[in-house]
Amino acid sequence: MGKRDMAELTQMRIVSIGDLERNLGVRRWPRYIRACEMVFQDRLRRIALDIQNRQNVRAVFISGPTASGKTTFTHRLAARLQALGHTVHIISLDDYYLTTTIAYDQDGRPDFESIHTLDTRQIVSNFADLLAGKMVQLPTFDFIGRRRLYAPEKQIQLSRDDLILIEGLHGLSSEIAGHFAHEQYYGIFIMPWCTLLDGRQLLGSRDLRMLRRISRDVQHRGSTALSTIDYWPMIDRTEQRFFPRYLAAADAYINSALPYEFSVIAPLASRFLRASLESWQNGTLAGSVYRKDRDGYADLASSVEAARDLLAACARIPETDRSLIPEDSILNEFVH
Predict the structure, then answer these.
(1) Which terminus has fewer CB within 10 Å in the chain: N or C?
(2) 327-331 long-range CB contacts below 8 Å, 24 or more apart?
(3) H helices within the chain, ranges in order?
(4) C-alpha Rg value of the chain to the nearest Å
(5) What are phi and psi of 21, to 5 degrees?
(6) Is the pTM of this model over 0.90?
(7) How far apart are CA 134 and CA 158, in angstroms?
């Protein structure tokens, strides 16, 4: 596969409303889903084999922007590597958040995104000890109390064929991966790279990630669609600053966009967008979960405009049954 196959990045998934409509039907749609999933699974298989063939690799860093499917991909990759004979340990960089006071931008958005929110010194120390064969006590971060907890079952020591999979935004940073010889680790950059057309671009990669994130935030984080949209400028700033270099540092790229997902994510996110806008219109909109003390919004007017634009785009997409999504699909991270 070689060092950073940049050609892979250019393979954007280009989907049209016509493509989706032509594949509708009791028989055609399940076949379309299987075909989309097969492309993703084949790429996953090839990456696992590439890791297997690099005998000095002990760690795998999985990086990528928010709502790319890093968590599900990490577990699917772990299963593949276990089938190849490895014992795999999964580590989340979220467990290494600093316990200090949260920083906010000038509009009151909390910074949960930048590398400065992580205890990089402790991360590097733990990983260096693991690669040296030492026993390491790994933390679990308590987000409510903003403290690290240490459980006996999270003590690990790498044996000869063990691998650690490190999932997190900043794994491929010079502050973390840069402390180790590249022959010791394998870098993966994952994101959905796609566009949906209807005579013109209807939705792009950023829009798809926003719809994914809205669906996940509302269902699992007590958020509203407008809260997620209002927080997005913080996400944008981090991604624009850091991710070009993370992409360049990766050994492999995987496109997590599944063409059929537009007909799944868009209708689901539309429900949340509509509910959020209705609450705003009738004066019952709760404060953003991404503001200190849930005190209002950083830029509610812009968020409402963006929500309306997304809702208008989603209204043009045919809806399909979520129950047809395979159990091992990366989409389950966002729809359930």
Answers:
(1) C
(2) 328/76, 329/37, 329/258, 330/40, 330/69, 330/72, 330/73, 330/76, 330/256, 330/258, 331/69, 331/258, 331/261, 331/264, 331/265
(3) 6-9, 17-22, 28-52, 70-83, 120-131, 205-220, 225-249, 262-281, 300-314, 332-335
(4) 20
(5) -65, -40
(6) yes
(7) 7
**φ/ψ bin of 299: left (φ > 0), alpha (ψ from -120 to 50), beta (otherwise):** beta
3-state helix, strand, coil in the chain (%, to 5): 50, 15, 35
Q: What secondary structure letter does DSSP report for 149?
A: E
- Name which of 216, 248, 256 is nearest 37 in CA terms: 256
Q: In tens digits, what is the pLDDT along the chain, a chain of 336 residues? A: 334 444 455 578 999 999 999 999 999 999 999 999 999 999 999 999 999 999 999 999 999 999 999 999 999 999 999 999 999 999 999 999 998 888 999 999 999 999 999 999 999 999 999 999 999 999 999 987 888 999 988 999 999 889 999 999 999 999 999 999 999 999 999 999 999 999 999 999 999 999 999 999 999 988 999 999 999 999 999 999 998 899 999 999 999 999 999 999 999 999 999 999 999 999 999 999 999 878 899 999 999 999 999 999 999 999 999 999 999 999 999 998
Between CA 318 and CA 315 the distance in angstroms is 8
Q: Which domains does the chain have, with CATH numbers?
A: 6-335 (3.40.50.300)
